Amino acid sequence: MEKKKIFRKENVPNILTVIRALLVPVFMVVIIFTPRGAYGEKMELCEIIMRLVGAALFGLISLTDMIDGKMARKYNLVSDFGKFLDPLADKILVFGAMISLITFMGGDEGIPYIFEICMVFAIFIFFTREIAVTSLRLLFSNKGGHALAANFAGKMKTVFQMVFILVALIEPILWDLWILTFASMFAMAAMTVISGIIYFKEYIPLIMGKSE
């Protein structure tokens, strides 16, 4: 009985993380293959439904991130596997969503060209930040526990990224102004840069060898 209880608690957070990672390709397929009408004209019902399905799926995937994290902390179920896969699943989700959005929106004459350019730079900023922070964590992970945990700015960065993706999917259903989409994109990019700078600032003493 005890073994069954331990098995259930220890595996649920990791199972949720695995499910989150596996659902990302499903989300990407839904978005990329959503039928697109001519922007500026009334959006077809099929596109509206597919956008809402994509937004709901993305919201569900994001929700599992919050649930497995809280469950792991509450029941002290943090594992090496979870430490590795949880942030990886988050990065896969956001990067996959951004790639899907730019693929979905690319070539539509009604979408401002500047939006596509900004999306490319947003993806570049996101990818550069994640590679840099992950490299720092790996570099110091075996040096007496010097690897730093995710800070508040890092968590807010993730929230801003998820808000942007949801807004980009839903706003065109309501109106075709792109104001909220642009605003959330710039807020996301700014928070991504800020959180990256904060991480580097915290790692400077380690990089300079002052912690020894």
Entry summary:
The protein is mainly α. Helix content is 79%, strand content 0%.
Question: What is the first-to-last residue Cα distance?
Answer: 47 Å
Overall pLDDT level: 80
How would you sum up the global shape?
globular
Secondary structure tally: strands:
0
Element order, helices and strands? HHHHHH
Strand content: under 5%
Cα-based radius of gyration, to the nearest Å = 19 Å
Q: Which spans have pLDDT < 50 for at least 5 consecutive residues?
A: 1-7
What characterizes the major β-sheet?
none
Structural class: mainly alpha
What does it look like?
This protein is mainly alpha-helical. It has 6 helices and no strands. Helix 2 (45-74) packs antiparallel against helix 5 (152-174) and helix 3 packs antiparallel against helix 4. The longest helix is centred in the first third of the chain and has 31 residues, at 2-32.
Secondary-structure topology with pairs:
Elements: H1 2-32, H2 45-74, H3 80-105, H4 113-140, H5 152-174, H6 179-207
Helix pairs in contact: 1-2, 1-3, 2-3, 2-5, 3-4, 3-5, 4-6, 5-6
Characteristics:
disordered N terminus, 79% helix, mainly alpha, single chain, globular, 212 residues, 0% strand, 6 helices
